[in-house]
Amino acid sequence: MPSVRLIGLRKAFGGIKAADGLDLEVRNGEYLCLLGPTGAGKTTALRMIAGLVSPDEGKVLFNGEDVTNTPVEERKAALLPQTYSLFPQLTVEENITFGLDIRGADDRLKEQVLISMLDLVRLSGRSTAFPRELSGGMQQRTALARALASGADMLLLDEPLRALDARLRISLRTELRSLVKSLRMTTIHVTHDQDEALVMADRVAIIREGRIIQVGTPKEVWDRPATPFVANFLGQSNFFIGEVLQSSPCTLLRTPDGTVLKGRSSDLIPGTQAVMGVKIGSTELSKERPGYLQAKVERILFEGRNLHMDMMTGGGQRLSAKLPSWKKGRITVGDTVGIYWEEEKGTVFSMPANGLESELKVE
């Protein structure tokens, strides 16, 4: 099981920087999710690790050894692309053993590996089927079995669940993680789906514009986002701009209209401009309690287990909240509500150099 380290990777396609000083360390046997918006450089990073794309600058290390210029076939890294890339003219069995055939494995070894892989991905009854005869989930499992049968030490997954329906995607999250964990493979899983990353990863690396901006456990990146972008990308947040009045034991932020908001302690200097972010699931509403702010409910969307509420403050700021569905009817469209949160739920950031609107932009 190799560890992986990326040092200062840069890669440009024309005028587009797909990797811009990319640094990342993946531990031995770790399941790491590389999470970011479309165009952030996720797939390019994965292809540089696999050896399919050469960086313009920087290094790729496996177990401390420089493999930047090592051929693809010598890296023992299996890439599972978004499309699965199954051979349509080959059966499930033939797809799985394709890598073994290329390596000249004997029939006995192929049979042993095939039986093991078919049992592992629960496709023993479909070994003679062609890809067109399989469901999306079965195709995904066939592609995974082929990757595992290749003898790779590392699994590189590029949006492996994106083409599946919602129910199957959710069930395969646990299935896929359990499978690769049982094989003790180092796994790097690229996705733009925050729920997928939070559920599956040992650690999450958040990438934006070709750079890693935060790495941590799912709980760490959710509870302690490093930037307003992370706070908003990992669960929608409400943001407030203001002046820091104090930073300890809690942060007090005074908005331009004089409202004072409370957040968790920070190291910001009083008098500086800052941004407070509060996840919409942590925003509480009450018709009886004044709260920090008051707003009028403009829209309520039913989302199954939750209600999504859109509101407008008297000062013209749009805010959102997410409440459990069992509270349906307690607050209705047109109600004026007080908005508040526990101070530990308010994360305070330095004012982004490029402004809050640009910081939150997802391209």
Write structural notes for this entry:
The protein is an alpha+beta fold. It has 2 domains: 4-228, Rossmann fold (3-Layer(aba) Sandwich), CATH 3.40.50; 284-340, Nucleic acid-binding proteins (OB fold (Dihydrolipoamide Acetyltransferase, E2P), Beta Barrel). It has helices at 42-50, 92-96, 98-102, 107-120, 136-149, 166-182, 194-200, 218-223, 228-233, 356-360; strands at 4-13, 16-26, 31-35, 57-62, 65-66, 77-80, 154-158, 186-191, 203-208, 211-216, 237-246, 250-254, 260-264, 273-279, 284-286, 293-302, 306-313, 318-324, 336-340, 346-350. The strands form 4 sheets. Strands 6-7-8-3-9-10 form a 6-stranded mixed β-sheet, sandwiched between helices. A 5-stranded antiparallel β-sheet has the order 13-12-11-14-20. A hairpin with a 2-residue loop joins strand 4 (57-62) and strand 5. Helix 4 packs across helix 5 (136-149). 35% of the residues are buried. The mean pLDDT is 91.
Architecture blueprint of SSEs:
Layout lengths: L3 E10 L2 E11 L4 E5 L6 H9 L6 E6 L2 E2 L10 E4 L11 H5 L1 H5 L4 H14 L15 H14 L4 E5 L7 H17 L3 E6 L2 H7 L2 E6 L2 E6 L1 H6 L4 H6 L3 E10 L3 E5 L5 E5 L8 E7 L4 E3 L6 E10 L3 E8 L4 E7 L11 E5 L5 E5 L5 H5 L3
Parallel strand pairs: 3-8, 3-9, 6-7, 7-8
Antiparallel strand pairs: 1-2, 1-4, 4-5, 9-10, 11-12, 11-14, 12-13, 14-20, 15-19, 16-17, 16-19, 17-18
